[in-house]
Amino acid sequence: MSYYSKLGFDFSNESFEELTVEFISEYYKRFNECKLFDEVEEVLKKIRDRGISQSILSASKEDVLIEKIKYYGIDKYFSRIIGLKNHYAESKVERGKKWIAELNLNPQEVLLIGDTIHDYDVSKHIGSDCLLIANGHHSYKKLASLGVDVISTLKEIN
């Protein structure tokens, strides 16, 4: 919550849950205005062509996440698309642990790529390595302070 407080949100006036519902409602109306980064499909294809399985683990609601991934035409790159059952992002860790177990993966062979401190926390809870991209919520400096590899753009993924 401190992230949102720093942005000026005052949860004594309106609860986090109320703001979440309001944000998600507006986001659903306008998600098709959002664009993928130019290099997304190129990087996904390169990883797939190397025989590396890719999944999405997101704090988005799963049914909407699947719809968005299909809308952008990138669903073909993913073996699994895992979201949450609600909008409050409280169980991404649990969903990640379940995904690891369902696919019988060795977490030490998984690389979680994300753009938030929470993504780093999820990787630690599921036992995977983490690569963070500094083009989201947090600055390069903030992400690097976690002691993990940080890149500025997807183009840096080899």
- The portion of residues assigned to helices is 40-55%
The CATH architecture designation is 3-Layer(aba) Sandwich
Give, in spatial order, the strands making up the sheet with the most strands.
Answer: 3-4-5
Major beta-sheet overview: 3 strands, parallel
CATH H-level name... which superfamily?
Answer: HAD superfamily/HAD-like
Q: So how many helices?
A: 7
Rg for CA atoms: 16 Å
Which stretches are low in confidence, meaning pLDDT under 50 for 5 or more residues running? none
Portion in strands: 15-25%
CATH topology: Rossmann fold
Counted up, domains total 1
Shape: globular
The arrangement of helices and strands along the chain is: HHHEHEHEHEHE
Q: How many DSSP-defined strands?
A: 5
Summing up helix and strand content along with how strands pair, one would put the structural category as alpha/beta
- Text of the CATH class: Alpha Beta
> What is the arithmetic mean of pLDDT?
90
Distance between the termini: 34 Å
